[in-house]
Give the backbone structure.
Amino acid sequence: MASHEIVNPTEQTGRTIRQRFVQVGVPLLSVALILATIGGIGLHTYRSTRAGVLGLTHDLLDSVQRYVVQDVTGYLSAATTGASFAQDFIGHARTASKDIAFYAYGGSMLRLVPQLQSFYLGDEKGGFILIERDPHGKGMEYTQLRPGADGADGVFHHDFYDEHGKLLRSEENPADHYDPRDRGWFKSAIGKDEISWSSPTLYETTKQLVITSSIGLTGTDGSRYVFAINTSLNLLSQFIDGLKIGKSGKAIILDSTGHIIAGHDFSRIVARAHGDPSQMLLDPKTQSTFLQVYDRFRVRGVGSHAFKSGGKNYIGIAENLPTTDGWVLLMVAPESDFAAFARTSGRESIQFSAIIVALAAILAGLLAHQSRKTDRANRELKRQKMQTASEADALQRLADTPDLFDSASEPLSLTEALARTSHARRVAIWRLLHDGTALICDDSYDSSLDAHSGGFELSRNELEEFFKLLDAGEAVSVAVASRDQKTAGFSRLMMREAGTTSLIVHPIRGASHGSSGVIGMMTLEDAVFAPHLVYFVDIVAALAAVRFGAAAETIAVTGESELLAPAPAGLSTPRFDEALVRPPAVAGQTTPGAFPSVAVMVITFSDPVMESGEGPEALLKLIDQIATEVQNIARTHELFSVKVAGHRLICVAGCTAEPDPGAIRRLAEAALALRERCVMLLSAANIEPIFSIGMDFGPALGGELGQEPKTFNLWGETVTLAELMAQGAPDVGTIEVTERVYQALRDRYLFRSRGSFYAPGSGIGRVYVLATRR
Amino acid sequence: MPQEESAQLAEHAMKRTVGAVLELSGATLLQEGAALPPLPLTMRLMPGECMVIETRDMGRATMFADLCAGMLDLRAGVVRFLGLDWSALGDRRANALRGRIGRITRRPNWSGLFGAHMQMMLKELHHTNRSIDDLTTEAVRLGERFGLPGIPVDAPGRLSDADLARMTCVRGFLGKPRLLLLEDPLETTAVDLSTPFLESLTEARDRGASVIWFGRTSSTWREYRRAVTSQWRLADDGLLTVRIR
């Protein structure tokens, strides 16, 4: 019934869920909370550290930028300050010594300032002088433009001096109509008091890019001159390359039009532009970061700009260079150069946190595991407590059973107690015959059907292996009985029908027939709980052993010779006329009135026509055969009368004035013989056994009724109950008997109990099924 | 079958079979002035036992049955059914547990809102997921036993008193209850239901059900006396045991 219930009141689902939550959920939640906390702290630390580092980086870069600007300014100051100085120095020199002043100043500057390449001095009349380093030596080269006579092309006159100022040689080459007044540096500076810058140009002599700064000056005679200084950009680039900006920071200088003046990897830039300064622009492929800073500078102006490129964070700074013609210094450095330690620190924090979390998780797991283990142990304790209670309860029931050790009574309570306690599907108690050739089932209880059966016999010849197993005397548990060679036979004969799988064979040891040893066995089929019930099973086995010992004594006392009681002397041969066996009234043996101990057997047949579908002739022949057998059996067992009434056959024995104790035995023998013959005949005709037999034993009323031919009839409770037994038989082919029959025959036949039944008039009584002879 | 699962099954099965089916331990009613005296009541009913309680006042019997079914509040003590304390169960579980009790009341309690068939099987329909076929088969079997030609489908008001008494019995025994609280149906009925009643009673006890049979006199159960486990008397002075003669 419980399996059909929608709500099982014995289950505490809510508590179980709560318990599991406390046991598993809370530790896991704690770990999750710790994880979240550590993660949060780590993230916060990382963010604050990063923000701090970035602020620091900006400050640092600002400092670097100031320092770089200062350095670049210092680098270019040789050109700017030098130009101003030269403007004053040469401007105030006398006209005759102007060239000397120029050469003195220029020579001095070239010797002291390496980034300067050369100095020019041009005048408004087309005069031009130049000083530069001797390309082939350590000295100086003085160059002067000497005009040709009468408009002819002039020449450049070169004087080469060594480092001590000694003239080494002089050369001349055609000026090729060179006129300084046509040059950009001259044009942009003539008449101006400020420095003007020209675009970078390739300096022919050194094949280096130079930039020319020029300034106008006025001589003492009022003539106007232009003083120019060539500064090497390659050296400027080398200088910028040498700047340290973080770990991998780079810098570049652009002019106001975006052309590269100097910067990182300058030689490659020059090569890419084939030496053409106008082509020296930022390359989006290789200089994307500079380009981004430059774009930001153009939009937002000078300052630092954080941006992302190629998945990396960068910091860029743009700053105008003072004293230049709108030049801008760009610096780029990856954020990681400065914030790398913050990231490393964050990663380490996370790693440490992970270790802590792992430890916490292990601890939480252990806690949960321990908690579950404790819970399991508690459950096990509770189960054991219940098991003890269950065993005590079962033993108490056994103790309450009357005649427990009476071998004449069936061991019903033993099998029931065992089945209930072990939750076995089927439990049977088997008795080993004293010669050990066969096992007889005293009782088999099927808990699913709540039914007893018994009387089965297992022969040693059939189950050699199984008997060997039993002889070994050890309790054996087989999970799948059909697969084990030793139990396969038992499984085939006994278990297949019930559909059971596992088998426990528990031998019963005790003394019987003067020898001690294995005297029987208990079999438990599909016992869920038997492994936990060793002691209880032992106790039941001991009880069964005591019973078997008592049974052996009883049989020894009664003896086999009394199995069939001799018929009372003087019983006449039954007669056959309208009844199958007519009561021998002629012999004067019947006494109308009450008979004290009549044995009545009623056999009910269901309709054979309905059952078989054979032709009526064949059936009639079969029925005739059965009737003949009945007559033979009646003669053999000296029955009083056999009467046919429709589908029923009523057999009577013991219609005597004095009680006939042998009547019921003769009738039982007749019943067994009849059953055997009927089963044989019906199965030969391929018909299921369609009969059931009921028996009762007790007083009845009877007498010859009517006129000749008088009919003998018997009635009373005994007849009624015998009919009731036949009608209520649990299965076809069975012999159902009342408790009185059982009491009379229990020492010679095997019965199985069908349970207690209430019958009107007679109250509650047990009903038994006659299985076989003992 | 895994060992743990089998152990759980066995444990579950054990819970149902071990110990007393019904246990009153000093159970004292909260309500005063009711039919049942507010005295501590103590008794224990084991599986398969049949207890007869004689009482002149059947209202008192009804109230005692209510107490056993956990329907009344207690001032002290405890009432346990199948080892479960009624007061410790929530409504859902208590109601489900009441599904395991079969009851026959003296005062007919049939509603006019449903057909008799529905009311007869209502407990099983509500508490279990048994199939209709299964339920009707059992109801028909019991009905036939009590003398009904089938399951009545009319409104109960249109049925005779005798058929209502039969239906009451069928309803009480339907669903293989673990506890039967029977306010003697044999005393008042016009028809003799003793045979099917005792037959059903014996069948239920053989199955392990426990029975409390309330009766005004011993005349109805005299025939069954041999099978009665214990006899009690419920009076103003509480629950007293009577030695079976």
Notes: The two ends of chain B are 51 Å apart (CA to CA). Confidence is low (pLDDT under 50) at residues 5-16 of chain B. Chain B is about 35% helix and 20% strand.
